[in-house]
Design goal:
CATH topology: Growth Hormone, Chain: A
Number of strands: 2
Number of domains: 1
Radius of gyration: 21 Å
CATH architecture: Up-down Bundle
Structural class: mainly alpha
CATH class: Mainly Alpha
Order of helices and strands: HHHHHHHHHHHHHHHHHEE
Number of helices: 17
Length: 452
């Protein structure tokens, strides 16, 4: 089997390298704007067209699982097309079309409400299918020597893009709905998001590629995907300890997503917050996470990833139950900022410990399988919350019970918390992630940029 050392970029001129780096940043910002102004408001849109609180909760997670299955086809798609760029650009264009589909549904008066699941599933399927191929392709495009600083700068730009889209969407809903129907505003939001993804696809298409990259890498990706189905893909020998860590991560996701999908129905239907208040709370969670990440990096270098994981794992336990205390806006803003900060520490420590267990060549396929398992855990947790709503009805007391049960379930994960064995050198580069969704309970859903 032919092999290639990922990370050595295709020889090109300095001008082409600069063009590639600018295009990668532009793609990231446009994608982030799409996330902030489009995907973020899908649950709110679902509620506005008459979907139940139960359906609005499911639409935040179920398409993630269905979409996660398609990402396993990425190596075969790349091999068939003999191109990373073609596979990724096509997926991006279809993802943009799914947003225009949603915009059309917002303007329609004859669509069954459950049809919203179809374009949302297409959105997630194509979005997640890009991940493994893009993570492999970008290792050829960005020289190893500039990766840490380049991707650190790119993630800051992406965070600003998500925040800008989030704020713009909230303001449009707040002031646009005073003069026209909310459905027209949602149609505008999804159309703008679609335009952002089209621009992103254009920037992806402008980046360099060699046919040999896709042919060699797709074979390696497929081989690793098959091999990583076994625990042998873990680099360290203590398989039981590594398996316990993975079980802990999955169990925590189940516990968290008992409540996470139902914050939007609770805020918009039970407490009757305005879209502006809803946007503010979403933005505070995301902002708390973004502001805390640099500090979390310093903490992890001083005290170690294992210790930070234990402290942050304990810290996220009460976050959903604290919603029972008050509906006061100031209190909830502080709670969301705190929650975002704690989640930043948890996810940074989790990715560090995860990468410490996996050799470099296996990180992309193992993360692909982990993302699929993570999506399944989200759906399982959502199903528990859905069962509670089905039994007791979508009233305020049920939502508060769901938040409390979520915190109680998080307590049970303490028995699986791993030991504090991962230490990070002071000059070590920390994982860089990219936001793919904004969520009320955790600030955002992040995926690592493996090349960084």
């Amino acid at each position: 089997m032919k092999t290639r050392r990922f990370g050595r970029p295709h020889p090109c001129s300095h001008s082409q390298l600069r063009t590639n780096l600018r295009a990668i940043c532009s793609d990231g910002v446009a994608h982030s704007l799409m996330v902030g102004i489009g995907e973020t408001y899908v649950p709110a849109f679902a509620l506005s067209i008459g979907m139940s609180c139960l359906q609005a909760g499911l639409i935040a997670t179920l398409p993630l699982l269905l979409g996660g299955l398609l990402q396993l086809a990425a190596p075969w798609g790349v091999e068939r097309l003999h191109s990373f760029r073609t596979w990724i650009v096509r997926c991006a264009i279809v993802q943009a079309l799914s947003l225009y589909w949603l915009a059309g549904m917002a303007l329609s008066t004859t669509r069954p409400t459950w049809w919203v699941f179809v374009p949302v599933t297409v959105y997630w399927a194509t979005g997640l299918a890009v991940g493994p191929a893009w993570n492999t392709w970008v290792q050829f495009l960005v020289p190893t020597s500039v990766r840490p600083t380049f991707f650190a700068r790119r993630v800051r730009m992406c965070q600003l893009g998500v925040l800008a889209g989030l704020v713009a969407g909230g303001l449009l809903l707040r002031y646009g709905t005073t003069t026209i129907s909310a459905q027209y505003v949602f149609a505008l939001l999804f159309s703008v998001a679609g335009c952002g993804r089209v621009y992103s696809a254009w920037k992806l298409a402008s980046q360099s590629e060699s046919a040999a990259w896709a042919d060699d890498a797709s074979q390696s990706m497929k081989w690793c995907l098959i091999r990583s189905a076994a625990v042998k893909c873990l680099a360290n020998g203590d398989e039981r300890r590594q398996l316990r860590f993975v079980v802990y991560l999955i169990a925590m996701q189940v516990a968290v997503y008992i409540a996470a999908p139902y914050f939007t129905p609770y805020m918009l239907k039970s407490v009757n917050f305005t879209y502006l208040q809803y946007m503010t709370l979403l933005g505070c969670g995301f902002l708390g996470k973004a502001l805390m990440l640099p500090l979390a990096g310093q903490i992890v270098k001083r005290f170690g990833a294992g210790r930070l994981l234990r402290l942050s794992g304990i810290g996220i336990i009460p976050m959903s139950a604290l919603w029972l205390v008050s509906d006061n806006m100031v209190y909830l803003i502080v709670l969301q900022l705190t929650s975002g900060a704690v989640w930043a520490c948890y996810e940074l420590a989790m990715f560090l410990k995860f990468f410490d267990s996996i050799s470099h060549r296996h990180r992309i396929p193992v993360m692909t399988f982990y993302n699929l398992g993570n999506s399944a855990a989200m759906v399982l947790g959502t199903g528990i919350g859905a069962a509670m709503i089905s039994w007791w009805g979508p009233d305020r007391s049920t939502f508060l019970a769901i938040f409390l049960v979520s915190s109680m379930a998080r307590v049970l994960t303490l028995v699986l918390l791993p030991d504090a064995t991962v230490t990070i050198k002071k000059d070590a580069e920390l994982p860089v992630t990219r936001p793919i969704a904004v969520r009320p309970g955790s600030g955002s859903i992040e995926r690592p940029v493996v090349a960084a």
